[in-house]
């Protein structure tokens, strides 16, 4: 294990990450908090927002900077922001029904917010999936509305500029292979391939339409995260106070690329 960095080096590295892409850094902190590591709750509960972190003076908040540095430092992947106009392009990636080799398909993965800290660090692992109604494996869908339904808003980082309630949908690249179970027709035929329509240990029968179950970890990888923020805004209308709930899309690109909405937050 490498020796810990001196506080000033940690401060410089953290501030560099926050200035370079504050929204992406904020998301990584939010996913870390959503993972709910009990032994770190004390430090997390007092962790200031990204605006405050970059304003800390030398000698202030060294423990918070050390924790933030650990969250942000990873050589295995990068998280960067995308422009909002990329959203439609990402959704179009899943328009083709079924699997078509050799070009990988893009499908939405069904998961809860608290799992994404592990997902972005370790990838998707079939044996860790608790959903087994239609068999063992990682569950995906070509229908975004279905993916959102299985990815409810959950509590995240209270200091996040994205909002304290987030929902994530992973857009994954999937390679055609018999280990991807789905409703697909046989080659040059109109007949459904029965060998691919049922996953191992299925209790519910064949895989439903628009569902895909990947039983081999090597056949998929996370390429994008679609992040939804749920906030309450207070506005005055004819002496009445009304809460308006706004669902805001934010896109995240994994493993190089770009993130949504360029704006200064400091």
Automatic annotation (TrEMBL):
Residues 59-237 form the PARP catalytic domain. One of its GO terms (cellular component) is endoplasmic reticulum membrane. Interacts with KPNB1. It is a single-pass type IV membrane protein. The lineage of its organism: Eukaryota, Metazoa, Chordata, Craniata, Vertebrata. GO terms for biological process: response to unfolded protein. It comes from Amphiprion ocellaris (Clown anemonefish). Its EC number is 2.4.2.-. Gene3D superfamilies: 3.90.228.10. Belongs to the ARTD/PARP family. Its main location: endoplasmic reticulum. Intracellular mono-ADP-ribosyltransferase that plays a role in different processes, such as protein translation and unfolded protein response (UPR), through the mono-ADP-ribosylation of proteins involved in those processes. Acts as an inhibitor of protein translation by catalyzing mono-ADP-ribosylation of ribosomal subunits, such as RPL14 and RPS6, thereby inhibiting polysome assembly and mRNA loading. Mono-ADP-ribosylation of ribosomal subunits is promoted by NMNAT2. It is found in: Endoplasmic reticulum membrane. It is an enzyme of class 2 (transferase). Pfam families: PARP. Keywords: ADP-ribosylation, Endoplasmic reticulum, Glycosyltransferase, Membrane, NAD, Nucleotidyltransferase, Transferase, Transmembrane, Transmembrane helix, Unfolded protein response. The gene is PARP16. This is Poly [ADP-ribose] polymerase. GO terms for molecular function: NAD+ poly-ADP-ribosyltransferase activity; nucleotidyltransferase activity.
């Amino acid at each position: 294990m490498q020796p810990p960095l001196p506080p000033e080096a940690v401060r410089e590295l953290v501030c560099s990450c926050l200035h370079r892409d504050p929204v992406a850094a904020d998301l990584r902190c939010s996913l870390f908090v959503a993972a709910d590591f009990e032994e770190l709750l004390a430090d997390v509960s007092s962790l200031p927002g990204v605006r405050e972190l970059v304003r800390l003076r030398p000698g202030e908040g060294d423990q918070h900077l050390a924790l933030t540095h650990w969250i942000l430092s990873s050589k295995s992947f990068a998280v960067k922001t995308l422009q909002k106009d990329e959203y439609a392009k990402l959704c179009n990636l899943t328009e083709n029904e079924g699997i078509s080799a050799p070009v990988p398909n893009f499908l939405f993965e069904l998961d809860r917010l608290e799992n994404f800290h592990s997902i972005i660090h370790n990838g998707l692992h079939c044996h860790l999936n608790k959903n087994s109604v239609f068999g063992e494996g990682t569950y995906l869908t070509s229908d975004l509305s279905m993916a959102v339904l299985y990815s409810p808003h959950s509590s995240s980082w209270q200091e996040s500029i994205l909002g304290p309630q987030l929902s994530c949908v992973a857009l994954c690249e999937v390679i055609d292979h018999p280990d991807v179970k789905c409703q697909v027709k046989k080659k040059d035929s109109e007949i459904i391939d029965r060998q691919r329509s049922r996953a191992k240990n299925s209790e519910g029968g064949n895989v439903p339409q628009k569902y895909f179950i990947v039983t081999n970890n090597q056949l998929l990888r996370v390429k994008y995260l679609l992040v939804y923020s749920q906030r309450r805004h207070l506005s005055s209308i004819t002496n009445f106070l009304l809460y308006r709930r706004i669902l805001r899309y934010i896109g995240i690109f994994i493993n190089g690329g770009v993130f949504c909405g360029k704006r200064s937050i400091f």
